[in-house]
Structures are given as structure tokens and as C-alpha cells.
Amino acid sequence: MSLRFERFNFVCSIILFVMLAILATLGSKWGLIRSLGGDVLATMWIYYSLAAIVKAKPFLLTCISFLAGAGVELCQLLAVKADYQFESHLLRVVFGSTPDWWDLVAYAMGALICLGWNTRGHISYLKEKMHKSRHESQKL
């Protein structure tokens, strides 16, 4: 594992962050799309945020992303057991306040989507096209 900046993953991270912000602010009545979809996207956002700055195997990044989500879920469970709640509404929206085991399924789905895309060549193909187009535009 080493540090580096990868533009494609950074752009993916920004797009996912915007999607998460839209879900958090406008999706209060979207039910399953907000809860399940938000957890899937959150895991993917963690993956691509890490991939933007850390060069590592996709499986390792997948595991870290899933464990980050599972850690949030564990903190939610401990907070409920300790009868603690964030005072900030924003933090309650971002981190959640109710532990739900289905969230772990959503985190796993997001992690597996990232793993699949990054090991089956789909993302590699897009990165290669982006890299080629950048070099072609620099030649002009």
C-alpha cells in the first residue's frame, strides 16, 4: 500500500458524495431508496475516497470500506445501549442513530459492487480511456 493521487477515483468519490448529499437532504420521504441506497453509496464513497489517495489491491479497499460501515453500525448499537444520542441533527443524519442489521447487507452490497467493478476490468477500461484522452489533449 502506498500514497498517491488518482484522478478517476477522486471524480467517482465526488460524484458519490453529491449523490449522498442529495439523498440526505431531499430523500427524507424516499424510504428504502434512502436507507438501503444511502448505505450502498456510502460504502462505495469510502472505497473511492480511499482509492483516490491510496494505491492498494481492490480486495483490501473493499474490506476497509465494509469494515468502516460495520464500525458505524457498531457505534450506533453501543450508543443505543448507552442511551446516547448526537445533539447535532446533521451528525444524526450522517451517522444514523438506529442500528439495523440490514445496513450490514447494504454495506456488503456496496463493497461487492466496488470489488466487482474494479476486478472485472470495467473501471480499468474507463481509467484507460480517460488517461488516453488526457494525453491526446496534452499533445495538441
- Spatial strand order of the main sheet: 1-2
**Secondary structure: number of strands:** 2
Average predicted confidence as pLDDT = 85
| Residues in helices, as a percent range | over 70%
Strand content: under 5%
Global structural class: mainly alpha
Tally of helical segments? 6
* Amino- and carboxy-terminal Cα gap: 35 Å
Q: What is the chain-wise order of helices and strands?
A: EHHEHHHH
- Tell the overall outline: elongated
Largest sheet: 2 strands, antiparallel
Detail the poorly predicted runs.
none
Q: What is the alpha-carbon Rg in Å?
A: 17 Å
Structural notes for this entry:
The termini are far apart. It is elongated, with a radius of gyration of 17 Å. It is mainly alpha-helical and 140 residues long. The longest helix is centred in the middle third of the chain and has 24 residues. α1 runs antiparallel to α2 and α2 packs across α5. The chain is built from six helices and two strands. Strands 1-2 form a two-stranded antiparallel sheet.
